[in-house]
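$ ./design --mode recover --in tokens.txt
reading tokens...
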């Protein structure tokens, strides 16, 4: 058997909390903004590749590194 933590004891008598209208709206807005940001990143990457291909050369490592968004840099650090 596993030990019961005080947190589990506190939650044992409580019913699951329902999501309020404000929380639903906030969650939905966050999801929409994340989707739009992802679409924007994909479009930027596609246009950058097309521009470099049009110039007739491959991107240098410095250009690739510079092209990373702050979110991508944070993800690589994890």
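writing sequence...
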């Amino acid at each position: 058997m596993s030990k019961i933590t005080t947190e589990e004891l506190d939650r044992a008598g409580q019913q699951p909390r329902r999501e309020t209208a404000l929380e639903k709206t906030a969650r939905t807005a966050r999801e929409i903004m994340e989707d739009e940001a992802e679409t924007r990143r994909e479009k930027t990457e596609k246009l950058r590749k097309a521009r470099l291909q049009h110039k007739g050369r491959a991107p240098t490592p410095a250009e690739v590194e510079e092209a990373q968004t702050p979110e991508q840099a944070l993800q690589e650090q994890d």
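exit 0
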